[in-house]
Write a structure and sequence with these properties.
The protein is an alpha/beta fold. The chain has one domain: ATPase, nucleotide binding domain (Nucleotidyltransferase, domain 5), CATH 3.30.420.40. It is 32% helix and 28% strand. Strands 3-2-1-4-5 form a five-stranded mixed β-sheet, with helices on one face. A hairpin with a 2-residue loop joins strand 2 and strand 3. Helix 1 packs across helix 2. 26% of the residues are buried.
Length: 104
Amino acid sequence: MNTILFIDTTSNEIIKVGLIINGEEHSVEQNLDKKKAQALLPLIEKILKEKKLKLQDISGIQVNPGPGSFTGIRVGLTIANTLAFLLKVPLNGKPVGEMIDPIY
């Protein structure tokens, strides 16, 4: 199964996490009532649980490199890079709209 994790933390108001499973898109958004660093990992965990997947099922990671919130982009890139390293999967930056619908 080909499962790509997509992370978009470029907005100041919401974060978006998506999974592309064999070409089919699934995504969740969360309004930010706390810091992005505190909200992103639970959101990734939420979508994986909804789809009955584990982190080890991810075959690649896409992250939105901007433009957008400087700190938000850094949070998204850091978490994406760490997950890619730990899972030994490829990591690519994709601009808004190239993977899943933009959050703006």
